[in-house]
Amino acid sequence: MKYKNYIASAVPVSEIGLGAWQLGAQSGWKDMSERDAIHLVQEAVELGVNFFDTAPNYGHGTSEERLGKALKNVNRSDIVINTKFGHTKEGHINFDATNIRTSLEASLQRLQTDYVDSLIIHSPPASYLDGSKNDHYDILEQLVIEGKIKAYGASLDTYEDMKTLMDTTNAKVIEVFFNMLHQDTAKGFDQAQKQNIGIIAKIPLDSGWLTGKYNAHSHFDGIRSRWSQKDIETRALLVEKIQSIVGDEHSLLESALAFCRSYDAVSTVIPGTTSVEQLRRNVESTRISLPDSTIKDLEDFYHKEVTHLQLPW
Fold first, then answer.
1. Residues 232-257: pLDDT tens digits?
2. Which residue, 59, 74, 165, 186, is the most exposed by fewest CB within 10 angstroms?
3. Where would I find the NADP-dependent oxidoreductase domain in this sequence (predicted)?
4. How far is CA 281 from the centre of its chain?
């Protein structure tokens, strides 16, 4: 495992982190038992993973609870935990600044820790990202002073939102939607580096499309039923073109994760993980890297063939 800088007051983080959404009971994805969830986290630690991303609403609080149990006997200073604010344990949305402290205290209790390394606002409307117009960031600064959190930021999807946050707050962490098919946030990477902001790359496999397991004839249910037949056909064609760019030397999944890791600004990448087998595959992907020429070809492909499309996540 390789490690990269995240925030000044935390240890470097593993290039591959563990997104803990799937750890929770009734997460909206494959239901995982507590025993399997704890085993998955412990196996991740054994493989060198030290970054864990969770939230109160993941499994209605059970993701944080299970993560806390799994990490109970691990040296706290060796691991980095990121949790969120804005989507409640009960499944409601509440971005009111007065709820930040209450939400955090509940997360700390579930995680069995007295601090989190970072607390980010969970995919808020753009209006909450401007520090000159919101009380959130004064409260977050106070929590840093108290030692409850080491850094704060937001989870977001676009460069425009990213720039607003970086220009108007002292945020030191941003979780961004970034992969071969969604590169808009890369426009903010240089500024993030200049401001010593750690970047978490979320949805690096484009909800499974960049694993190579879907095609134009795939059918989806559950949360992925959001894709129309046209969406599916468009995605499938784009993935075929990406495959032709990266070639067959490595799996599409390995290439997709390598693409995200190739950017110096990206601290860690958090692919979805529902099994130890997937975890090991994700970690093993760190053994490969993509040539600079291939990265450039993928960037050109995005600008020429994807930017004019409105791909639903």
1. 999 999 999 999 999 999 999 999 99
2. 74
3. 15-301
4. 18
